[in-house]
Amino acid sequence: MINSQNIVARSATTLPAPQARDNVVEVAKLIDVSKCIGCKACQVACMEWNDLRDDVGECHGVYDNPMDLTAESWTVMRFSEVETEVVGGNDVSAEKQLSWLIRKDGCMHCAEPGCLEACPAPGAIVQYANGIVDFDSNNCIGCGYCITGCPFNIPRISEKDSKSYKCTLCSDRVNVGLEPACVKACPTNCIEFGSKQDMLARAEKRVNDLKERGYEQAGIYDPAGVGGTHVMYVLHHHDEPGLYHGLPKDPRISPVVGAWKGITKPIMSAILGITAFAGFFHYITKGPKEEPTDEEVFGEGDDHHRDSREEEHRP
Ligand code: SF4
Ligand code: SF4
């Protein structure tokens, strides 16, 4: 639910944001992938709460369904079978073990959102003081620039209305003090929600626990390249986030977006400024443009051409 006084950033807008609520606490969702059993209760709860109805998918021989995020599936479970170093267990002779890594995919609610940076439609993407990045479909023009700008490949354009959609972090629920629907539905408590500070403290505790149990590379995924995120993961293989269905190791806003906003825009503004100044300079040095007299056009004494032109204009 859009509440303009909670907005700290709007796409394609340079006006300063209201600061009356700069005391708002930043929130975060913490997903501990080491506790996830892949039941998809969160996926169902998301569709239920947000009133989304995606197509019934087909079996592709894997548990992923749907196979990708869509405009009607804002979160999907990603299943990856990978070989990892042996941790615990009895078979210490083996060099590798087969691991099934499950990750809940969806918008990361970046502190520096590439989608918002790239969007050319004023107010189509907003960021609230609590860190949630939300799409205002009324202002979306369906250009898809948000997809180019997102380092996590999250937004999807709907074929029905050509608008862009993604997880809202249940901003409507959070606004009234409720936790997101996926958090509420998770049976293993693998998804938690609270202030970012509290979630970081919990994540740290869990990482220490995992390290004690042999997962030496366990860590918190809160990538600095996008200023940190308001959806964080606890990963047992934090040194290789790519194992979790291609989670980027060091996500950053694409240089193309940086070029569009950082170089092209100031250059275009400068060209505009120079053109306006040149026009003004011409005006004060040469004066306003004046219509030439008939004498200047036809020369002194050229009555024949002057008369024929007057005849042309006579009704
Ligand atoms: S994950 Fe992508 S869509 Fe979500 S806030 Fe970050 S840039 Fe935007
Ligand atoms: S926070 Fe809400 S919108 Fe986002 S994945 Fe969870 S249920 Fe869906």
Task: Characterize the structure shown.
- The protein has 315 residues and is an alpha+beta fold.
- It folds into 2 domains: 244 residues, Alpha-Beta Plaits, CATH 3.30.70; 33 residues.
- Helix content is 30%, strand content 17%.
- The protein has 9 helices and 11 strands.
- The mean pLDDT is 89.
- The structure holds iron/sulfur cluster (2 copies).
- One iron/sulfur cluster binds next to helix 2.
Q: Which structural category fits the helices and strands?
A: alpha+beta
CATH fold type of the largest domain: Alpha-Beta Plaits
Bin the strand percentage: 15-25%
- What's the CATH class of the largest domain, please? Alpha Beta
Quote the average pLDDT: 89
Total domain count:
2
Ligands bound to this protein structure: iron/sulfur cluster
Main sheet specs: 4 strands, mixed
Spatial strand sequence of the major β-sheet: 9-2-11-10
| Distance between the amino and carboxyl termini | 64 Å
